[in-house]
Specification:
Layout (H helix, E strand, L loop, with lengths): L1 E6 L7 H12 L4 E7 L2 H13 L3 E8 L2 E8 L23 E5 L9 H16 L7 E4 L14 H9 L3 E5 H6 L10 E3 L1 H9 L3 E3 L2
Parallel strand pairs: 1-2, 5-6, 5-9, 6-7, 7-8
Antiparallel strand pairs: 2-4, 3-4
Helix pairs in contact: 1-2
């Protein structure tokens, strides 16, 4: 079937979820469903809807008020109807948690293992019932938000759901990665200190 696009920009909840569900039911073979919306809460609702259908969803921020949620459908949904999706509008799924990451390899010992663990850590954060408010990336952690990073897709998914992704500009310059930032925005150490000081809770890998 290829790709189906549902343009739900400007439509209020639960309309994007309703239209996405109808499009899924109309798919008689595997393919990709793309839903365009204009706010993070809609992204959160669509992401949960996909999870409720046991389907993989990816989200990406494409503009100041443009987000795309892509759902991969690997089976003929029309032939095997999915479960009913809740049509209630969930509240903002972000809490007051701040995640501070200062390395691209988690723990001590093997660098290769450490990078695998960090990828798993970032993915785990993206699957929390309540997403963090902000993710701070500094020192080696700055490498996670640039082109080619194994965690880039998970970070983009969280950004599309409203999570603030901030990467230390001095750190990007030090590693020669200033032109390769692929998600979030650049910040400085003063802002990092303010975010940490004002956080309800901080976790570090």
């Amino acid at each position: 079937m290829g790709k189906i696009t549902v343009n739900a920009v400007g439509k209020q909840c639960p309309v994007p979820v309703v239209e996405a569900t109808r499009a899924l039911r109309a798919m008689t073979e595997s393919g990709t469903l793309e839903v365009l919306v204009d706010n993070e809460i809609a992204v959160q609702n669509l992401t949960r809807m996909a999870a409720g259908h046991h389907l993989e969803a990816k989200a990406e921020k494409r503009g100041e008020a443009l987000f795309a949620v892509t759902v991969e459908v690997s089976r003929a949904v029309g032939e095997a109807p999915v479960e009913e999706a809740p049509l209630t509008c969930i509240p903002d799924a972000r809490g007051e948690l701040v995640v501070a990451i200062d390395t691209d390899a988690m723990g001590r010992g093997s660098e290769e293992l450490g990078r695998t663990l960090m990828k798993g850590f970032v993915f785990g954060v993206s699957q929390l019932p309540q997403l963090p408010k902000t993710i701070l990336l500094y020192n080696g952690g700055a490498k996670l938000s640039v082109e080619g990073s194994d965690s880039l897709e998970d970070l983009k998914n969280m950004e599309a759901q409203g999570v603030e992704i901030l990467t230390c500009g001095t750190c990007l310059n030090f590693y020669g990665l200033s032109e390769q930032l692929a998600v979030g925005s650049v910040t400085n150490m003063y802002a990092i200190v303010e975010k940490l000081a004002g956080a309800g809770k901080v976790i570090k890998p």
